[in-house]
Write a structure and sequence with these properties.
The protein has about 475 residues and is an alpha/beta fold. Helix content is about 50%, strand content about 10%. The structure holds iron/sulfur cluster (SF4) (2 copies).
Length: about 475
């Protein structure tokens, strides 16, 4: 039997099944223990986070008054740490060749009728130009696992191509990478290529289910997959993004697992995950989400987001266009800090949408709006869409967001950066209505920069962007 040890480098010790089961039992036993729940909520108010046991008790709690308190606290923490900023990004699918057998993904190797595609460097260039023309500055590249079709050299070539393209005023300033678990050496090469965050979803932390859901291919190896973030960090990548695919296993098991993973990274490497993603399983070619028994409703989904927010206040939270407009609106308030907009989940989908019979998409997109529509919608809800990539470009990686928070510099750093990058977007890509809404918002928000000197410089830079076609200012 493996013993729980968050500092261990062995998957089954830092994500320990016995510990998760004991946690769920403890949560069940205490779900009506209002004294304990109040204590946990008080601790969460200190904004230093919660451990997996504490968070699991809150997740099990069904007391309406306490839940209201939890939601209100999540909203407040979101506001204090992230203000009204929402970081924008887009996925870019490079190749859907894959040797794995994941039963929930249409790219699994046995799917013989899906259209397989792999972008050439010329096609990557065209996709990037299309993304730049929408206004994107931050991409997450996605690829299936296939050592023959998509070796690491191919991924590295694509990253090089993406960073090299400067179309009109466009530029991709940060490339996050979502590819299969790999070796320390390959992570080192990705780091050298200048990637932002390395993202890898665990899918499920339950080993038994994991092995059933990944019956064939290299991804079948639970330990190799679960220990990937440690290898990434050994390879020099200090921004890693974790996530589970909600719907595969019991959500309570997954929440405990994901928080244990965060605790492990913090304990071993001194830096927790940069982001946590919360995708839910969706319909796709040959995948029917109803065949999975653990689907979660919108209410439960919102509860999970709120609890992650208060458990790991410094970690960015991401949702994709898998979620509908109304669900996105709800979880933005409760804790999500990054969203994608105008996404295409097929290979080559930005240059031309695919005809039905050539479907190469990984999942059906629920939020079909364009980036401009999403930007305008966010601003009308009172958010500031941000295209900021400043920390990455200034070499502030790892725990720099925490450092900015601790030094109280968010309003003097993230906030003006958001306004300047939004102004770039409005000048180069927005339609007239969006521009009018955005310009008014920028004017109001500039006043909220506390440091007078920073406020003045930000206003000058914004004028320079508008009047002198200058770009890429940052604090
Ligand atoms: S989830 Fe990833 S590894 Fe699994 S089949 Fe899909 S693309 Fe391949
Ligand atoms: S300044 Fe850094 S932490 Fe703040 S929004 Fe920009 S990249 Fe993120």
């Amino acid at each position: 039997m493996c013993v729980y040890d968050k500092k261990s480098l062995k998957a089954e010790e830092f994500i320990n099944d016995e510990e998760i089961k004991a946690t769920l039992k403890y949560a069940d036993e205490n779900k009506d223990n209002t004294e304990l729940i109040d204590k946990i909520i008080e601790k969460a108010k200190l904004r230093k986070g919660l451990d997996h046991r504490e968070a699991s008790v809150l997740l099990a709690c069904e007391n309406e008054d306490r839940l209201k308190e939890i939601y209100a606290l999540a909203e407040q923490i979101k506001k204090d740490f992230y203000g009204d900023r929402i970081v924008m990004f887009a996925p870019l699918y490079l190749s859907n060749y894959c040797v794995n057998g994941c039963v929930y993904c249409p790219y699994h190797a046995k799917n013989k009728h899906i259209c397989r595609k792999k972008l050439t460097q010329e096609e990557v260039k065209n996709e990037v130009i299309a993304l730049q023309d929408m206004g994107h500055k931050r991409l997450a590249i996605e690829s299936g696992e296939d050592p023959v079709n998509n070796p690491i050299e191919y991924i590295l070539d694509c990253i090089k191509t993406i960073y090299s393209i400067k179309h009109k005023n466009g530029a991709i300033r940060r490339v996050n990478v979502n590819i299969a678990a790999t070796t320390v050496e390959n992570y080192r090469r990705l780091k050298e290529a200048g990637i932002g965050t390395y993202i890898l979803f665990q899918e499920t932390y339950n080993k038994e289910s994991y092995e059933l859901l990944h019956p064939t291919g290299p991804k079948h190896n639970y330990a190799y997959h679960t220990e990937a973030m440690d290898r990434a960090m050994q390879g020099g990548i200090d921004d890693v993004g974790i996530g589970v695919l909600f719907g595969l296993e019991l959500y309570r098991y997954e929440l405990a697992g994901i928080l244990m993973h965060a605790e492990h990274l913090e304990a071993v490497h001194g830096v927790g995950p940069h982001t946590i993603s919360v995708p839910r399983i969706k319909r796709a070619d040959d995948i029917d989400p109803d065949t999975f028994d653990n689907g979660i409703d919108d209410e439960t989904f919102a509860k999970i987001v709120a609890i992650i927010r208060i458990a790991v206040p410094y970690t960015g939270m991401i949702i994709s266009t898998r979620e509908s407009k109304s669900v996105r609106e709800k979880v933005l308030r409760l804790g999500v800090s990054q969203i994608s907009g105008g996404s295409r989940t097929s290979v080559g989908g930005y240059v031309e949408p695919e005809p039905e019979q050539d479907n190469s998409a990984q999942f059906d997109v629920s939020d079909q709006r364009s980036l401009d529509e999403v930007v305008k919608w966010l601003m009308e809800l009172g958010y500031i869409p941000s295209f900021c990539t400043a920390c990455y470009r200034e070499g502030r990686t790892g725990d720099r967001f925490m450092t900015l928070c601790k030094n109280g510099q968010i309003q003097n750093c993230c906030h003006p950066n958001a306004l300047m990058t939004l102004k770039e977007y409005l000048m180069d890509y927005a339609d007239e209505d969006t521009k009018a809404v955005g310009d008014k918002l920028i004017e109001q928000e500039l006043e909220k920069i506390p440091n007078e000197k920073v406020r003045k410089i930000a206003a000058e830079h914004i004028a320079d962007i508008a009047e002198n076609n200058k770009r890429d200012f940052r604090f």
